Structures are given as C-alpha cells and as structure tokens.
Amino acid sequence: REPFTIFQRKIPSGNKVFYYQTYDDQGKRTWARSTGQTTKTAAKNFCIALLKEGKLIPETAPKRTPTLKEFGENFWVHGKSEFLKYREQRGYSISKSHAVNQARYFRIYIDPALGKKRLDQIAAHQVETWFLDLKEKGLANQSCNHLLSNLRTILGEALRLGIISNNPVETIKPLSKAAKPRGILTIEEVKTLLGCTESPKYWPSVKVYMVNLIAASTGLRMGEIQALRWGDIGPLPNPDRIIVRHSWDRKFGLKTTKTKKERIIPLSKDLWGRIVKNLTPQSSEDFIFTNSEETGPIHETMIAETFYEALEKIGITDSERKKRNITFHGWRHFFNTFLRRQGIQDSKVQMVTGHSSVEMTNHYTHFDVSDLKEVIEAQVVLLTQG
After folding, report:
1. What is the Cα–Cα distance from 11 to 46, expressed in whole angstroms?
2. Is the pLDDT at 365 greater than 70, yes or no?
C-alpha cells in the first residue's frame, strides 16, 4: 500500500486542487491535507518530497493546557477524580464529607475568580490578589488559608502530572492564625451543670444531659458521641472502656474518626452506672443517643442548642458565652485540661483524646485499658466532687 493517496477536490474559488491522505499508526486514514498543486504529477512529487523529509504526517499539535475550571471541576468528586483515586491507592483516602466541602469551596470561591485561566497562565500575583480579596470580603484568616490550601493542592497535582512547571501558590504566605482562644467552663460551672442533684433541671431531657456528661468525662468529639453504639461499650457485663470506632456525618452517616484510627477511653463504674440509669441499653448496632424523629443518632443542632440553653439557665448569657468563646467542642478542651491538672502524663492524655502524633501513637500502642487507671480516677473525681 502506498504511504499516501492523492485525490482532486474543488475549492470555494472554483479551482481544482489535489489533496492527499495518509494512515496513522493504527492503519486509519488521516484528515485530508492540501498539496497546493493543480496536477496529479506535481501533487505526487510534493508528497514524495515530504515523505523523504519525514514531514508527510505533520506533528500532532500540542495538547491544549486545560483551564482551572476544567481541571478542578471534578477534582474533589469521588468516582470521577483521578487525584482522589491516586491517594486512595496509596492509603491516603479523603472522606466523602471533606471532599464534598472542598468541591463546594472550589465552586464558590476559587472558580469564579480564577476558573477561566489556563493552568499555565495562573501567576503568583494573581493568586495573591485573589487571596487578599477573600480577607477584604470578611472571611476569617483560617478560612482564607483553607481556600489557599485547596488551590495549592489542585495546582500541586497539575505540577505532579507535568501540566505546569511550577506551583504559584507555593510562594504565597498564609495569613496568621490569630484564632480566638477556645474558652472552657470552670470546675464550679461544670459541677452546676452536671452535678448529681441540680443539673437535670437545666436540661430538656436526660438524653442531652448524658451527651454532655459523656463529653465532659471522655473528651469525645460531637460526631464521635453521635456515632456511639451500644456495641462500642465493653466488655459486658462489667464494661471498663468505650471503643471509639466512628464519627457521624449528617450526609454520609458513619465514617472513620478524624485520625482514621480507633482508640480506647476508660469507663469508670460510676459513669457506666449513670449511663445504665438514664439510658436503656439496646442491641449492639443501635445508637446510644437515638433521634426520636428519624433514623440515626441525635442531631447536632439539638445538642448545640440545648447546651447553650443550659448555659443561659446557670447565668452564662449568650453574649458572655460568645465573648468567652464557649462551644460544645469546649468540653474536649475542658477534659484535656482537667486530666493534666490531675497530673496524668501527657502521653496518656494524648492517647485518650486522640491528639497524639503518629510517632506518639506507635510508641504507646502497648498500653492496655488497665494502664489508664488514672483516667478512671479522674472521672470519679469529676463525677463525685461538688
């Protein structure tokens, strides 16, 4: 077979010009190209000359660099993102809830400002202008930094794939983390809220009272408390631990903990006694704190609102609460501080709260619940004094 085929074609001017077609590496005909010649012999000689020079088949035009919108619109979408697949294959999965939030942030804050630009056209000064404009619009420093990190990750992947030669975000300095310190309740305020005799009157139900009691006594995050099931308390019939296996996400349900690792929190007999007294144990798969209106655990809005209402009832007004920056998550800070005040080693505190580094976690994996008797003693102090 000849490496090319010549044929005549009439052009808009009315003249007749010879075109040629070749074959690609799979044997398929390529697009017709003009020789510019009006005779078959001249056209054939033209093609032979191109063949000798290795130019019969023009080089494929370089692939167009995608815009940020094109590259980023599915970047955080599970099932469509090659980036998420790449991470999962290496054991660095990103939760669906986190990915959904990142996709939303990209759509709302990044795409409108930079989406139309090709990846290789995005310069550091443009990123800087966009970044500082976020702050001018009133976003908190931490939120601005989070969005910058989102863009850094996207462009970092483009760099890894060889689409761009440098990541312009790497030259942008984040804003200072001037976050307002988290406030915690005093021991006296906690005793008033959670004391044996006075506290129930500050809460609309025993259920939300127990949510707060467990938060204060274990340092569990709200999502971890929501995700607790009766099978996470053991071993029965005389349990001495809570096994933190999951966290709860309103959209996706049960998910792994923030650190993606299970941890054990000691459970004193006193705390277990209060759980049994105020809640009715069910099957191992049932949530401890159920939602009476729908399937699943108690809603986070109810937890937060009833907590704020209880604070109002003991004299901490809404304005004072905001000034002191007290939130439900403050129970975690309270518990951490309380354990340290009891003289418990930082390594054990970190193990119980799940705040340890990877190195610290590996170093103390030999701990058993029996080694954490000080935590149980601290729970007893917290639940009995006052």
Report:
1. 19
2. no
Token couple for 386: 């006052």
* Angle, helix 124-136 to helix 141-160, in steps of 10 degrees: 160
- Tell me the two tokens of residue 77: 């979408």
pLDDT at 58: 67
- φ/ψ of residue 139, rounded to 5: -70, 145
Identify whether the C-beta of residue 240 lies closer than 8 Å to the C-beta of residue 266. yes
Q: Angle of helix 330-341 relative to helix 206-218, nearest 10 degrees?
A: 50
- For residue 10, the cross-strand partners are 16
pLDDT in tens, 294-328: 678 999 999 999 999 999 999 999 999 999 999 99
pTM for this prediction: 0.69
pLDDT, position 111: 97
Instruction: Kindly write down the DSSP assignment for every residue of 176-220, as one continuous string.
Output: P--PPPPP---HHHHHHHH-TTTGGGGSS-HHHHHHHHHHHHH--
Report the C-alpha gap between 65 and 384 in whole angstroms: 67
CB 257 within 8 A of CB 354: yes
Q: How far is CA 92 from CA 17, 104, 130, 247, 258, in A?
A: 60, 21, 29, 18, 13
Report the first-to-last Cα separation within the chain, whole angstroms. 98
User: Which pair of structure tokens corresponds to residue 241?
Assistant: 């631990």
Q: Which pair of tokens denotes residue 214?
A: 């467990």
Contact 252, 97 (CB under 8 A): yes
What is the C-alpha to C-alpha distance for residues 371 and 222, in angstroms, rounded to an integer? 26
pLDDT above 50 for 361: no
β-bridge mates for residue 253, sequence order: 249
Residue 332 has pLDDT above 60, yes or no: yes
What pLDDT, on a 0 to 100 scale, did the predictor assign at position 366?
39
SS3 of 319, please?
A: helix
Amino acid found at 343: G
What pLDDT sits at residue 378? Answer: 84
DSSP state of 244: E
Element (H, E) at 371: none
Q: How many whole angstroms separate alpha carbon 87 and alpha carbon 102? A: 15
